[in-house]
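Here is an idea for our session: we take a single protein and study its fold together. Which protein we use is up to you, so please pick one and set it down. Once you have written the record down, we can walk along the chain together:
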Amino acid sequence: MTETTTHPPIPRLPELAPEPPPAGDPAGRAARTRTAIIDATRALFLERGYAGTRISDITAACGISRAGFYNYFKDKRDVFILLGSAAFRELLDVVARWDSLPTPATSADVIGWVRDYLAFMDRHGAFLHAFSWSAPEDDEFRSGARRMQMRVAFQLGLRLRARQPRPTSAPEALGLVVLAMLDRTWYGSRVTRLPVDDADMVRTAAALIRCCLTAEPAAVAVGPDRARPAAGAAPQRPADPVLDAARRLFVQRDVADVAVADVVAACGVDRAEFAARFGSTKALFLATGSASLQEVLDAIDGWDRLPRPCSTDDVAGWVDAWFDTLDRHGVFVYLFALAVRPGTEFAAHGLSSLMKVAWALGTRLRSRQAVPSVAPDALGLAVLGMVSDTWAHSRAERLPIGHADLVAVLAAALQDLLTTRE
């Protein structure tokens, strides 16, 4: 019996190209105005987020009246959906380029596709990033956004699964893992500008995709059904009520909007204790970020407690344990990473912390490879994306993809990375 895989359809995507000039407008003035509104709104969304952008900001940037804006769009939500839909449509075109690659695809073929994907992200990545973390809050929009994200993950997963000797049963999980890895690769090297060689990042991303193609499917137990070996468990650090409360506060508000009074109320400390321990809300933000990143480092240290060689099930236990850590710290770690982009006051401290995490992971993985094949910093950054961004999409954005399926895909790919002798 032939397996049939279905996925919910997404609505027809609106066109972004300017409409033909109406009769009486031979010079195309209306088309140019519409394009100017779209370009200005895109820039404002990236700078201020969706919620922070007002119609008056858009009209001021375009040099038009409010009535002029409403001649073309009902509200800013319409523009946001238009921009997002166009980006997702082009992304589906990039995914479909797998259809033109030979079977089997060579390393050069996969590298070429990775470069195409990163070029797409250079055009649309900043907006897609805002699409996930600064977007309309209504249920209709969120539901539509999830459908589009799932459509892309599913379509990529189907194309990759068609090339696997033993196809995975969860193409949506396969597609999401690869997309997460590529998005983090792009963000880390092109936006955050971590000191990782771009060519190394491309080669590493391509190598991990090839591991996803050649990996043996893994059947793993997760969560309470997993009997993790004691040696693989990360040590539990004592809770810090102040940092725990601060973490929740910073997730709810931008650090610039947090006052000492907010900290005192949320964390249960008086002003004297706060001043003695931290001194400022910015110092508290850095202390909270450092503590969360340390727990991520503890999870990475789990590799030191796994046997040599380790099995796919051992790797799955490590992935599952890392998901547990991200359930506690993941949203804040993600926001902390956003705050340390070049040019921000947190850049020097934050970038060194993120590189420390990437290096710690990359060196551990590379030391276990049968034939060390990629730069450890690039490897660490790419695998960080495979796991942490997969967590963000599945947990924070609540994409309907099974946790066990994600762990199985990740564990199989990492195990193939360790054992391949190419």
Residues 1-21, 227-231 have pLDDT under 50 and may be disordered. Residues 181-419 form a domain with the Tetracycline Repressor; domain 2 fold (CATH 1.10.357.10).
